[in-house]
Amino acid sequence: MEIIQIVGIGIIATILAVILKQQKPEFAIQVSIVTGLIIFIFVVGKLSYVIEVLSNLASRIDMDLLYFSTILKVIGVAYIAEFGAQIARDSGEGAIASKIELAGKILIMVLAVPVLTSLLDLIIKIIP
Questions:
Q1: Rounded distance between C-alpha atoms, residue 10 and residue 69, angstroms
Q2: What are the sequence ranges of the domains in the chain?
Q3: pTM across the whole model
Q4: Residues 24, 25, 31, 36: what is their CA dihedral angle, to the nearest 10 degrees?
Q5: Which end of the chain has fewer surrounding CB within 10 Å, N or C?
């Protein structure tokens, strides 16, 4: 099972980071970043499968490509912002992590504007 491998990588990296943090703290954050990237690469194939399935569903129900791509972008921004914030927290920079999360939330709002505009246009057309 893949989750056992992922957890194993995470545990080994955690032990290594704890040891390095005591002797060479500058390398501990690098271990954390590299581990995160390795785990991401491990699951990126699964993400492409999910995107393919969602794309097929969107085409079957004749969903506008604008909405589908916006949803994928929002999910991507959320995951990337969370990853960056966790890296910042791991290195003891809680304030920077909060700023990364705030930027992610603002970008999600910006991405949602076309969908909200379309929704409001639809509501205006329905109301006489």
A1: 31
A2: 64-128
A3: 0.75
A4: 180
A5: C
